[in-house]
Every structure is written in C-alpha cells, then in structure tokens.
C-alpha cells in the first residue's frame, strides 16, 4: 500500500541526513564562525594595534590615579570623582553631559568688571553633535549618560583609527597606515580619545572627509565637513581644506574633466553650512549675532590673537618663568616639546608630497592652535586632530621588523598612560 512517505519528493542523495542537500554540507551553529568582509580585512591589524595600545595606556592611567589618590579629594566637576573612571567625564566632559541631559539655555550674562572672565560660561560653547549622540545612545541602549558618552567616544575612536589608516595607506602603504593608527593611540593628548570628549568624533569625521576628497567622493566629503561643523568650532580648518581642494580641482582643466563640476561645487557649498548654522542659531537665541565669539573670548578667554599668547608662553618657559595666563608647568613643558618638533614634522610630511587637502588641513590646524589664546598645556590635545603629521614617522617606522615595532609600541603605550592621560587630566586642565 502506498503511503504519504512514498510520495515525498526529495533532492537529497540516499543516506543523506535531514537538513543537508546534495552539494551543500550542513553547517550547525556550533561550527559557524563570523566571517570578516573582504573590504574590512585590511583594517583589522590597524584596529587591533590601536585597541591594544589604548588599553595599555588606560591601565597605566588608572594605576597612576589610584596610586596618587588625588582625584578622590577633587571636585567631581574638576578632575575628581568617587572612582578613577569618573575622571574621564570631568572638565569639558561635565559640560557635554549637561547638554545631553538638559539641552541648551543660550544666554550672555555679563559679570561686570575688567577681569579675565567678564561673561558667565554657558553650555552653548559646546557644539551639539556629540552630546546629541550621547543622548541618542542612552535612549536606545538604556545606558546612563556617562556610559553612553564613553561608548560613543570609544566607537568613534576606532572609526577615526580606521580613517587614519585609510588616509596614510593611500600615501605610504598599508604597513605605514597600520603604524599611523597605533601612533594616534599614543600621541600627546590621546587620553581624551576614550573620555567624554568630542575629539574622537571629530577626527573620525575629518579623516574620512580627507579620504573622500582623496578618492574623488565630493558629495561624501561635503556632507562630512557639514557634519563636522556641528561638532567643533575647529571644523573651520576641515571646511576650508575641503573647499580649497574643491576649488583647485575646478580650476584645473584635467581634474575638472575627471571629477566634473557638480561634486566639487556641492562640497564647497554644503561644507560650511553646519558651522555657520549653529553659530547663527546661538546668535539668534541670545539676540547678539556674535554671541558665540563673545562667549569664547569673555567666558573662556579663548580667542585668535595671531600667536601673541603662544609667543608669551614660549618666552616665559625659555627663562623658567610662569608669568602667563593658564600656567601649568608639566603640561606646558610637554606641549613646548611638541611645538618645537612641529617644523621638523611638517617638513617630513611635505617631503612625502601628500595631497593638497592633507597639507591645507594640517597647516590650518597648526596655525589655528598656535595663533589662539587658550591653555597652552592643552596644545597636545588641540593638535590631536592633525593626524597627517604622523605620516612621515609612520613611514619611517614601517621599515622596522616586528620585534622592533613591538618594543616601540609597548614602551610608548606604557608611557602614554602618564604623558597622554595623567598629565592632562590631573596635572593640567584638559
């Protein structure tokens, strides 16, 4: 008698187990392994080097904090807290968390007098993109604002490291790109990369915007520069670099034929809108068109002075004095060494003949930092976005064999826990 089983049609060979078709061996969940996309594989060494190096530096930072114990007696807003990791959300981090929690209340409150600060500090000095991401991640994941801020910074730092790798690889090869990502992890000021600070987000945007220009993706470059304008006022250097590269592309007949006109024009038009839009919004809400600049100058004593403050600091440090605003001996001396190394780093970078966008972005960043009155000890942090300066050192280190590189990065990672983390957060004001 025929049965239903006799009428069943199957394409499996005799004796094949259920769930396995001919020519397609069954894969159980026990044998499944994640497969890295082919396009992502070149980035893996750079990201591993970056992550391991950062972890070592953070561990040293934590041990130094616990050893000194000074953070326990400090104001939680100014470098203190109940736990060592609370330090990562102090200073500027406190302001970002305030914006993420409460939003903005733009105002210019005059304090009177003729002292250094004549306007009350206000949270609108801190651009909205980073705190908005913190709030969004908190709402989606259920994490607190502190945890969300650290998560955003860490994820963005890996995106930034990948961008540094991508840019340097185009100029000097994959090995140099990997080393550049590692160098960015131990650069002076790198302690803010895994803190509640917006540097990692900015460098992620800037690196990929430069990469987009270098590969002719003008719409992407314009949109990224626009986004950067909602993150930091120093986005002006990136916007200018993208705009200059687009203008030069249009001015040259050969490159104009290659790239067309629409893309570069789009990049030039869209790039500055984020920055200009936010500054205009602050002016509208406060009733003063130049309110943002007034707040920076009179509330934080930060303003472009064509290098007068930097020159004053250099003269004081040269004769062993500290007769200048925002004097912090240890961070200032480390920043002095970085400033003295800049001509050498710039010359080495130019010898590699990088694309115009990298040269313009780097030089504009340096001019902006050295030409502005701000905390000189933070020069290390302010120059952190100038990642193209790592191009020549990365290319030179790429000639070393693996043992030599291992010794270098081990030493640098351990030392960075002090000079890139502890010095900034505990011996100065980041």
UniProtKB/TrEMBL annotation:
**Listed pathway(s):** Glycolipid biosynthesis; glycosylphosphatidylinositol-anchor biosynthesis
Q: Which domain of life is it from?
A: Bacteria
Q: Which UniProt keywords apply?
A: Endoplasmic reticulum, Glycosyltransferase, GPI-anchor biosynthesis, Membrane, Transferase, Transmembrane, Transmembrane helix
Q: How does it sit in the membrane?
A: Multi-pass membrane protein
Asked if the keyword Flavoprotein belongs to this entry, the reply reads: no
Membrane-spanning ranges: 43-65, 143-164, 170-187, 194-214, 234-251, 263-284, 333-350, 357-376, 405-425
Q: What is its main location?
A: endoplasmic reticulum
Database matches in InterPro entries: PIG-V/Gpi18
Region feature Disordered, mapped onto this chain:
1-29
Q: Where in the cell is it found?
A: Endoplasmic reticulum membrane
Q: Which PANTHER family match?
A: GPI MANNOSYLTRANSFERASE 2
For this entry, the protein name equals: Integral membrane protein
Species name: Streptomyces ambofaciens
